[in-house]
UniProtKB/TrEMBL annotation:
Record protein name field: Ribonuclease P protein component
Organism: Leptospira kemamanensis
Keywords: Endonuclease, Hydrolase, Nuclease, RNA-binding, tRNA processing
Single GO BP term: tRNA processing
A single MF term (Gene Ontology): ribonuclease P activity
Classification via Gene3D superfamilies: 3.30.230.10
Coiled coil ranges: none
Top-level taxonomic group: Bacteria
């Protein structure tokens, strides 16, 4: 995973950013990373739950063969469900 943070392609805009890197495998792997603006574990866990649900919902359209890190700021969890999904999909359209 350290290679993902060293050699990556950045997509999206705050409060949701994607870091992607080819892994050469027949599946995609995901890492959910709330940043330091999340002051408590409750906020970090909520953001991760939201991200996992978005990935599960859109797994058929996600490309395989990539390592992906989804970086979120605390403002992401405060957005409405529709806004979060729109932000997720807009970043997904930038996928290589």
């Amino acid at each position: 995973m350290q290679e993902l943070f060293r050699q990556n392609r950045k997509m999206g805009r705050p409060p949701l950013r994607w870091l992607v890197r080819k892994n050469g495998l027949p599946f995609a792997s995901f890492l959910f990373c709330p940043d330091k603006t999340h002051k408590t574990a409750v906020l970090r866990n909520r953001s991760k739950r939201i991200l996992r649900e978005l990935v599960r919902k859109h797994i058929p359209v996600l490309p395989v063969g990539y390592d992906c890190a989804l970086l979120v700021q605390v403002g992401f969890a405060k957005l409405s469900k529709e806004d979060r999904e729109a932000l997720f999909l807009s970043a997904l359209k930038q996928f290589p």
